[in-house]
Design brief:
- The chain has a four-stranded mixed β-sheet with strand order 3-4-5-6. A two-stranded antiparallel sheet has the order 1-2.
- By secondary structure, it is an alpha+beta fold.
- It is built from three helices and six strands.
- Helix 2 packs antiparallel against helix 3.
């Protein structure tokens, strides 16, 4: 009887060890699969060699007002591509002026409905969530730059596809007198 008990215990331990090895192999292989990143970006269409001048609004060195600066960007055929580029340049300006702490802010989908544009940004943008003058100037630097496009009057920011509270709970319209 002792030999049978030892044999059964050995078989059970063997099953446990084989199951554990298989579990950790599957787990480590799934980690490798999750690392693979598939990018599904729309093709951006520009007119070769043509540029257009856009008024960008940047926060002054004192941080007390917005200044208008004209910059050239490629001539985009689709309004969404032009808005994406304007937001990208505006956020680069905010990062260079040390208002944003990171330059790694992902611009997600951009939706245009009538005269309103919805701009989906990642959670790194939440550093501007608190309602204060500096953050308000930063937000209006983007809003005023985007509304330079003739048919866009209102801007709504989404964070990771969701509406947020604080500075991102509002629909913004152009305000150059801020």
């Amino acid at each position: 009887m002792n030999k049978k008990l030892i044999a059964v215990v050995c078989i059970i331990w063997g099953i446990v060890i084989v199951s554990g090895v298989m579990f950790f192999q599957m787990r480590s292989s799934s980690k490798k699969i999750n690392i693979i990143e598939i990018t599904n970006k729309e093709k951006v269409v520009t007119e070769e060699g043509k540029v257009e001048k856009i008024n960008f609004y940047v926060v002054s060195d004192n941080g007390d007002k917005l200044l208008r600066k004209e910059k050239e960007i490629p001539l985009y055929i689709k309004p969404k591509d032009k808005i994406r580029k304007i937001v990208q340049v505006s956020m680069e300006n905010l990062w260079e002026s040390k208002i944003l702490k990171t330059s790694q802010i992902e611009i997600g989908n951009i939706f245009i409905k009538g005269d309103m544009v919805y701009i989906n940004l990642d959670a790194n943008m939440l550093e501007l969530k608190t309602e204060n003058r500096k953050n308000l100037l930063a937000i209006y630097s983007i809003v005023n730059s985007v509304t330079e496009i003739g048919n866009i009057r209102k801007v709504k920011f989404l964070i990771d596809g969701k509406e947020e509270t604080g500075s991102f709970s509002k629909v913004y319209t152009r305000n150059t007198n801020i």
